[in-house]
Amino acid sequence: xxxxxxxxxxxxxxxxxxxxxxxxxxxxxxxxxxxxxxxxxxxxxxxxxxxxxxxxxxxxxxxxxxxxxxxxxxxxxxxxxxxxxxxxxxxxxxxxxxxxxxxxxxxxxxxxxxxxxxxxxxxxxxxxxxxxxxxxxxxxxxxxxxxxxxxx
Length: 152
What we know:
Radius of gyration: 15 Å
Low-confidence stretches: none
Structural class: alpha+beta
Helix content: 25-40%
Strand order of the largest sheet: 1-2-5-3-4
Largest sheet: 5 strands, mixed
Distance between the termini: 18 Å
């Protein structure tokens, strides 16, 4: 089954690829490797969910924010590779805006990782780091960056 068919089966649609808000590009391709810039959980109106996970935001809410971020990253992957069927996710770095004693970053970032596997199958499995941050741009709850390989 194609990645687009999986998205449809899951009832999901990809958002428009986000325009960079500073002096950087959405992705940088080097041979068959693509480095995707970090993204947050952008809403349809362009705003972001904000707050500290573990105080203002629950793990379950932040999981959904990571999933929303993953949809934006899939849109960028599709732009970079031409098709999600030509994408293999290599590495993911998930950053969680959390209170100092928060220790469930992996549960939050699973929102993105689970989405990638659901949409891309085995090509969505990846190496990963999930870390806590004292703050993130615009006080958003999560930011995720990804490295992919474009398949022939």
